[in-house]
Design brief:
The structure is a single chain. It is elongated and about 55 Å long. The longest helix has 12 residues. Strand 5, helix 5 and strand 6 form a beta-alpha-beta unit. It is of the alpha/beta class and about 150 residues long. Strands 3-4-2-1-5-6 form a six-stranded mixed β-sheet. The N and C termini lie far apart (about 45 Å). The chain has seven helices and six strands.
Length: about 150
Amino acid sequence: MGVPQSLVIDGSNVLHSDSELRRLATIDPERARAELERLLAGRARVSVFWDGGPGGSVRSLHRKGIRVDYSGDGEADDRLVAWLKHQGPRKTTVVTDDSALRRRCQQLGARIVPARGFVDQLRTTRDVAPDRPPPSPTDVDFWMREFQCKDGE
């Protein structure tokens, strides 16, 4: 059995390729980032690389089940390529429309998926109706008592 495919996201490029996220980014860039991360959440072997970051520092962390990498003062593209070299590009798909980054990743052997339309695809696969109905009010009351939560918490 082979190693599972990793999905690596050029965060800023993907964010700006989607009209809704791009519009949100003009109002609140951090909220736009959070929305893309929400759409990616819970998927296996996903890393998203962002230019800049909180406090301008280089950081990697795990949030919502995905690896999030901030480039600080450097370029997210350079960090993404370095990660790709370290992890092994053969089982990796990179999502970007950046031609220079696409070329660098392809030279290493990574598969490329266009950023344009990627977020739309995430929305349709993620936001489908669940297989089961929402919990009943009785179930909600039980778990609220079980976890000692008050209304509104």
